[in-house]
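Entry 12.
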Amino acid sequence: MQRILRPEGAVIMRDRLDVLIKVKAITNQMRWNGTIYPEENSGFDHGTILIVDNSVK
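Predicted 3D structure (tokens):
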């Protein structure tokens, strides 16, 4: 993913909360900024979104 994502780029991932928590832990180790948002229509466990920003901290 690091080689595919351009500098200052972003990724949006949609999955279950438990999966996105694991992905966020990995992106934190890569020094990427990640934020988890619940999708409004489908509830927190069925439609969670992770937005990862590849900007330098």
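Annotation: Residues 10-53 form one domain. The chain has a mean pLDDT of 82.
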